[in-house]
Amino acid sequence: MARILMVDDNVAFLKPMGQLLAAKGHEATTVGTGVEAQELLRSEGCDVLITDVSMEPVGGMELLDMVQKECPDVPVIMLTGFATFDLALQAVKAGAFDLLTKPFRVDQLLETIDRVSAWQTAIAEGQTSPPPDSYKARALKEFLRTQVPSIPGHTTTKSKNP
Fold first, then answer.
1. Which of 9, 44, 88, 101 is the residue whose CA sits 20 to 30 A from 144?
2. pLDDT exceeding 70 applies to what percent of the chain?
3. Is the CB of residue 75 less than 8 Å from the CB of residue 123?
4. CA within 13 Å, CB half, 17
């Protein structure tokens, strides 16, 4: 199972989530600040980082940036209670594995962690089909799909006829 570092400044949320992850067989470490997360990432590392976006003084986007620079193999699942189109786009561009909006269903988080594991396994085994990006950003893509208006007379489904 995965070594998960979860960071959120809401201790009432963080404690039960850490217990849930541990009950599911993961080695879960929880911290309440981005500064603590930075220290643990540098000293101990992890397989997956789950981080809240809005924290002070070091927030989730700063942690994502740090991970991309210092440990780019660590997927980052971002959590936010204030999802906007701009935030979602920023998270995708910055390399987030996925962005879940609070409140989220526990099974949604667990399924995202399972996709991280499947993606990491596919990379470790050198698989190129399906492409690793097919594992990423399912919740994020669904959020973006609901935010972008459709163009009249245009469908986004692929035609079966080439």
1. 9
2. 78
3. no
4. 29
Task: Determine the angle formed by the axes of helices 85-94 and 60-70, rounding to 10 degrees.
Answer: 20
| 76-110 per-position pLDDT tens digit | 999 988 877 788 778 888 889 998 988 888 999 99
Separation between Cα atoms, residue 67 and residue 82, nearest integer Å = 22
What angle (nearest 5°) sits at the alpha carbon of residue 82, between those of residues 97 and 142? 45
Residues in the chain: 162
Give the CATH number of the domain where residue 124 resides.
Answer: 3.40.50.2300
Instruction: Note the Cα 36 to chain centre separation in Å.
Output: 18
Q: What are 91's two structure tokens?
A: 């998270």
Quote the DSSP letter at residue 135.
Answer: G
- The predicted model scores a pTM of 0.81
Total domains present in the chain: 1
Task: State which residues form the domain around 32.
Answer: 3-144
